[in-house]
Fold these 2 entries.
Entry 1:
Amino acid sequence: MQIDIATLFPDMCEAVLSESIVGRARKAGHITVNCHNIRDYTLDKHRRVDDVPYGGGRGMVMQADPIYRCWEAICKDRTEKPHAIYLSPKGAVLTQKRAMELSKMNELFLLCGHYEGIDQRVLDEIIDEEISIGDYVLTGGELPALVLTDTIARMCPGVLPESVCFEEESHYGGLLEYPHYTRPEIWHDTTVPPVLLSGHHKNIADWRFAQSLEVTKEKRPDLYEDYIDKI
Ligand code: 4GS
């Protein structure tokens, strides 16, 4: 998987992507993530990348050309055109299912917007898909691009030690996760559920599945109904 992120804040993206599991996966070569500064592609002598909106109104709009030239530069050394995603509240809300599908693609281009938005013409020309990370408004598309990169990265081969790591977690398979416990056995007068100390693998698996059902029914009745309808 190769992900190219076009942003006005490459250092912000790089800082997040250099740490923890994603940072390790990049160093080990399991995934390639490059952050590109859109400002490097402006032809303006003052390095401007935005201007006032036609038709008036508040704020600034990101210009088409620097974004297009950034996209062109990325495409030039690729064999196939990357699947281009614009992170925006107008997009379809991100789900585990879509993230899983995207993790099977070879090359992704993630475009981060700022200010009031981006000149529609460049979006119409290069963008294949718009994705939102939720129904709320942020100051920029960087955090959404990082969220998307993180969830995709963990499903790429070699990134997590075993595939069970992501298959057992919340939203994978449509249920929320069962609760976890670790040492000590008694903490603040509360003991660990005895079945977890039994060493009986079948009983433990059954208990965890029952907990998953219960937690999902309680916290996310919408997911629970979907799950029940499918079985
Ligand atoms: C989101 C979101 C977002 C919208 C970017 C206002 C700056 C901002 N992007 N999911 N302009 N939610 N973007 O809020 O993806």
Entry 2:
Amino acid sequence: MKSNTEKFGKTPHQPSLWTRADALKVHADDPTTTQPLVSADFPVLSNEVFIWDTMPLRDLDGNITSVDGWSVIFTLTADRHPNDPQYIDENGNYDITRDWNDRHGRAKMYYWFSRTGKDWELGGRVMAEGVSPTVREWAGTPILLNEQGEVDLYYTAVTPGATIVKVRGRVVTTEHGVSMVGFEKVKPLFEADGKMYQTEAQNPFWGFRDPWPFRDPNDGKLYMLFEGNVAGERGSHTVGEAEIGDVPPGYEDVGNSRFQTACVGIAVARDEDGDDWEMLPPLLTAVGVNDQTERPHFVFQDGKYYLFTISHTFTYADGVTGPDGVYGFVADSLFGPYVPLNGSGLVLGNPSSQPFQTYSHCVMPNGLVTSFIDSVPTDESGTQIRIGGTEAPTVGIRIKGQQTFVVAEYDYGYIPPMLDVTLK
Ligand code: FRU
């Protein structure tokens, strides 16, 4: 049987490994890598909709961009159903937890705008009903292409299947607000191939989503990160010496960790417009460690590649664990080798007293980290919770070499622009 990395041959690069030994260094509640407690009296963006994954408008170099002084974010969004009999429990109360937990099945892409980089106003749906080819519009990235306001929205079309797609439209501003026009023709780009990236046929729990296109600051080419799992039938992966790493005596038992096979995928565009893509071997694999490395993204700083990805407690393999939050890796060149930040990979996790308070962190090049509120306990025992579905307080981190430090906390959903583009 081939090892997980032999699958990828000798060229053009070997994936870096997030090993079980690295993950043993993950510790919740280190104040330098823990998100401050979110208070249960948080404000909500909207009483009509839940929002979760937040995707700030940016350029291909990663800069968060406002247009004519308007900040713009895209969010995965789903209606709240406080009056729908389907979500009323036997006592006649709205079961918001169930409504929230069902949201993924009806996720749609919405946009919001703001003059202040917070206090977001709802713009509406990006694509009209019927435009997107599948039921679920899952995460991706809106890219401002030029001063004409053209926007390429890369996202994931899910159920049936999971296809990385893009749709082009335009952002239009007035004194009073922002609208999105166009976004009428969705172009499928690629799906998992079963050779490098696991398919649904190989594993019904496969992940293939969350495109993050970027221009490499060094070679100038257009690439895209995405979430995947390493190809192969579910259960066929090996957790060998390479995946285990250098562990202390007594830590060799890997249990059933062969079922956890996350990777950060990368593709390169064959054309300037990003319509024609070739998948390359993953940049990073987490076989035997974790099953999900979601929403991968970069910060390019000090000539280095800082690769961030979000992950959960429940997706860790047997014998390793860590908080829900954002993890990071650093390399001197695009194709690695990548080293876990802070030794472990953990950059910003939830405190153990509020393990689900936030998720879907996005580290921006200015060191600000945005996320959404999932659920916050309202009593000591943690049995009563308040569901979020809204923006979390933004956190500031400092990135220094191979380390990161929490240094600041800002307002809810604070996503200031790094540059402003005046539309022509
Ligand atoms: C992260 C995530 C993404 C996915 C979306 C689905 O929170 O799991 O990977 O695109 O949410 O709702």
